C-alpha cells in the first residue's frame, strides 16, 4: 500500500537553527505551537464588540465610559480589537487631549486620559474573558494611567451656600423640590446617585435615619435632622411615592421620578439668578 504523504528528508542542523531563531524572534517556543488551538476564534472589530461590552456593563460604568467607547469607535471602528498597539493607544490619548474644550476648571485633560485608559482596559478585560485575546496581548495593560494631580476641591463658603439655597427655593418650576434636594445633600453629603436611588422604604422616622445606596454598591445609614425627615415624609405622601415603597422617593408634582437632568436644570438656573460664579464652575 502506497503512502499518500511523501517521505520528507530529515531536517538539517541549519534548518533547525533557522527555525529556532525564527521562533525566538517571534517570542514563541515549540510548546506554544503544540498548545495552540487548531481553530482560532474570529476577532471582532471595535464597532461590533463595543455594543457587546456596553450591554454587559453596569449602568454607572456604561454612563461613564460610553463617550470614550464612542470615541474609540470613531477612530478604530473598522479595526479588529487585537490590532492596536500600546503606541497607538498613546497616540489616541494625545489626539483626544488636543480636541478637549478648555475650561477654567479643567485639569489639563488628566481626567479624560484616565477615563479613556479605564474604558479601554474594561473593553480588553472583557475580551480576555471571552477568549478573544490573551492577557499578554492586552495592549491597554501596557499603558500607564497619568498620575493624578492634587485635588482642588474645597468646601463652599457659607455665604455662597446660603445664596444657592435661596435661589433654588425661590425660583424655577418646582422650588420646593429643589430646596429638598439641596437640603438632602447638605445634611448627608450623599452623591447624586444616592439621592436618586433613595426610596420611601429607606426612611426610618423613629431613629431619624435614612439608608443611602451609593457608588460601588455601598450602603450606609445616615442620621438626618427631624426637619429633613419630616420634609422627606411629606414629599413622599404628597407626590404619590408612598404608593410604591420600593420606588424612587424624589418626584415631580406629577408623580414622575426625577433624573440627573434635574440637577442640570438647578445649576443652570443658579447661574442665571445672581450666582455668576456658578457659571465659572460649570
UniProtKB/TrEMBL annotation:
<dbReference type="InterPro" id="IPR013762">
    <property type="entry name" value="Integrase-like_cat_sf"/>
</dbReference>
<dbReference type="GO" id="GO:0015074">
    <property type="term" value="P:DNA integration"/>
</dbReference>
<dbReference type="GO" id="GO:0006310">
    <property type="term" value="P:DNA recombination"/>
</dbReference>
<dbReference type="GO" id="GO:0003677">
    <property type="term" value="F:DNA binding"/>
</dbReference>
<dbReference type="InterPro" id="IPR011010">
    <property type="entry name" value="DNA_brk_join_enz"/>
</dbReference>
<dbReference type="InterPro" id="IPR002104">
    <property type="entry name" value="Integrase_catalytic"/>
</dbReference>
<dbReference type="InterPro" id="IPR010998">
    <property type="entry name" value="Integrase_recombinase_N"/>
</dbReference>
<keyword id="KW-0233">DNA recombination</keyword>
<keyword id="KW-0238">DNA-binding</keyword>
<protein>
    <recommendedName>
        <fullName>Tyr recombinase domain-containing protein</fullName>
    </recommendedName>
</protein>
<feature type="domain" description="Tyr recombinase">
    <location>
        <begin position="147"/>
        <end position="282"/>
    </location>
</feature>
Amino acid at each position: 500500500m502506497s503512502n499518500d504523504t511523501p517521505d520528507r528528508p530529515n531536517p538539517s542542523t541549519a534548518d533547525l537553527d533557522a527555525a529556532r531563531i525564527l521562533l525566538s524572534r517571534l517570542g514563541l517556543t515549540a510548546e506554544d505551537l503544540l498548545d495552540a488551538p487548531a481553530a482560532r476564534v474570529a476577532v471582532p472589530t471595535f464597532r461590533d464588540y463595543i455594543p457587546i461590552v456596553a450591554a454587559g456593563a453596569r449602568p454607572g460604568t456604561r454612563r461613564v465610559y460610553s463617550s470614550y467607547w464612542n470615541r474609540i469607535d470613531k477612530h478604530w471602528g473598522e479595526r479588529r480589537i487585537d490590532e492596536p498597539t500600546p503606541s497607538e493607544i498613546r497616540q489616541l490619548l494625545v489626539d483626544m487631549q488636543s480636541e478637549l474644550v478648555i475650561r477654567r476648571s479643567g485639569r489639563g485633560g488628566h481626567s479624560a486620559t484616565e477615563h479613556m485608559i479605564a474604558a479601554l482596559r474594561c473593553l480588553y478585560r472583557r475580551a480576555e474573558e471571552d477568549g478573544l485575546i490573551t492577557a499578554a496581548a492586552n495592549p491597554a495593560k501596557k499603558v500607564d494611567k497619568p498620575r493624578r494631580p492634587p485635588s482642588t476641591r474645597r468646601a463652599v463658603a457659607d455665604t455662597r451656600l446660603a445664596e444657592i439655597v435661596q435661589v433654588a427655593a425661590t425660583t424655577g418650576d418646582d422650588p420646593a423640590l429643589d430646596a429638598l434636594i439641596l437640603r438632602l445633600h447638605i445634611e448627608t453629603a450623599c452623591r447624586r446617585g444616592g439621592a436618586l436611588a433613595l426610596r420611601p422604604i429607606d426612611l426610618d422616622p423613629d431613629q431619624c435615619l435614612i439608608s443611602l445606596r451609593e457608588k460601588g454598591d455601598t450602603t450606609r445609614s445616615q442620621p438626618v435632622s427631624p426637619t429633613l425627615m419630616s420634609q422627606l415624609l411629606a414629599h413622599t405622601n404628597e407626590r404619590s411615592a408612598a404608593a410604591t415603597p420600593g420606588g424612587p422617593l424624589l418626584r415631580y408634582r406629577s408623580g414622575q421620578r426625577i433624573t440627573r437632568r434635574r440637577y442640570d436644570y438647578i445649576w443652570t438656573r443658579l447661574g442665571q439668578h445672581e450666582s455668576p460664579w456658578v457659571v465659572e464652575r460649570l
